[in-house]
Amino acid sequence: MNALADPIREVPHNIEAEQALLGAVMVNNACYDLVSRIVRPEHFFEPLHRDIFKASGDLITVGRRADPITLRDFLPADAKVGEMTVAQYLAALCADAVTIVMAQDYAASIFDAWMSRQIIVACEDTVAKLYQRRPGMDPLTEAVPVEDMLAKLRAERVSASGTASHGRQYLQSLTEARQRGKVLGVPICLPEIAAVISEPSFEAGNLYGLLSSSGEGKTSLTLQIIMHALKKGHPVQFLSFDQSAEQCIRQLVAQEHGIEARRQRAGDLSEKEWETVVDFSEWIDRQPFEVVKCTDHSAPQLLAFARAFVKRFGNGNVPLIVVDHIGAVKPEDRRADEGTKAKDINKVFKVGAEQTGAAWLVLNQRNSYGMKRDNPRPISADLFGGDPAKQAYDAIFYVYRYLKFLEERKAIASSESDWKKIGKVFPSAVREGGEDIAQIGAIKVRFGNAAITRNLIFEARFTRYRSEQVNDQPELMEAML
Predict the structure, then answer these.
(1) Which one of 198, 254, 293, 469 is at 20 to 30 Å from 166 when CA atoms are compared?
(2) Dist. CA 328–CA 103, nearest whole Å
(3) Angle between the 299-313 and 338-356 helix axes, to the nearest 10 degrees?
(4) Please, what are the domains in the chain?
(5) How many CB atoms lie within 10 A of CB 38?
(6) Helix (H, G, I), strand (E, B) or coil at 146
(7) Residues 332-380: pLDDT tens digits?
């Protein structure tokens, strides 16, 4: 290879931007609060600059001033910058300080250079592994670290474009919504869900959570949501750690056409039912629908699946991405506590929703704490990761089937006190006629009233929910015509 044609390249960095930013922080400590939202010490290329920025932050955080005099005691005494001592260098940085507004731009430049370095390192490592091929090596597996790195960087990226255009962006979105005559999102199958989350649809770019215990039917409700979205022409990807595509379709057939899953498994169908399932199979294959059976996948890997799906099946309608369920997602740090795992995972999902222009629905299986309470009604502590995990969600709703918990309590009741508690907690779990009442409510609503609750009827035979007001189910054939 011609050496002249392949010159040695420096990794991206901007020493001048780092110097100007540090000078601005020392001259005006108020600048630190603004730029620290964009850059951290590790983002700086020059090691001494990392030390200066960290020491400045430590002093400012405890209410002390950070300037060349106070910082000198927290930096290496023998450090030299060219012919200058640390004290002389700090003074020189202040002399070249920029304004707060310019400092934000320089912070963004420093952050972008750091991102570029991270991507370069990840890609170089992968390229080296691909050149050193070994028997049985899967090239796609070797590329996973690059996918993880990109997803993590997207989650960390901070916009530093300023606030001047925020008002204009708001007016533009308002105008577009008025022209459409509706919110840009995925239609919701049951009006009770819309009432509980105070939204007419699952809005594009939003992250939603669905909470219930195992066996309460959250996957059943999710499949109804998915089916409704497909009927309305919205692409849907189901990232499932539990059910296969075949199991999902079997349950969809039961919900839509009243053919129990047990009879489908046994092939015990009438001639008309055979025609129905054949028509359904052909219809579902024409839809922008994908079930991905997940195993030990991380949040960045799931985001990569979603990005590829939206790119393949995007049709102008807002996509729906469903993750079932968050507790099965591989965390970045397996040793971290559950709250940290949940926050890190949800942060990736929220960024993914914004970048893909999709609505994301993440299923949460209740932890064991709620099952031990006398009143097992869901609360935020029952989420995977507990109350702190709510942060990234735009709305979280729950499904609470009284009957499931009532039967469990009755089975172990052994005293008059136990039966009094049951009577107080479950006053109307089952109505006359044996209807299984399920309550839906909200754990978090960003723009509405979280106290709203509604009831649904669960039909266990077909694993589906229906409104109390509507007794008949919408027919799939209407969507096929």
Answers:
(1) 198
(2) 42
(3) 20
(4) 11-162 (1.10.860.10), 183-480 (3.40.50.300)
(5) 21
(6) helix
(7) 888 888 889 999 999 999 999 998 999 999 999 987 776 677 888 888 8
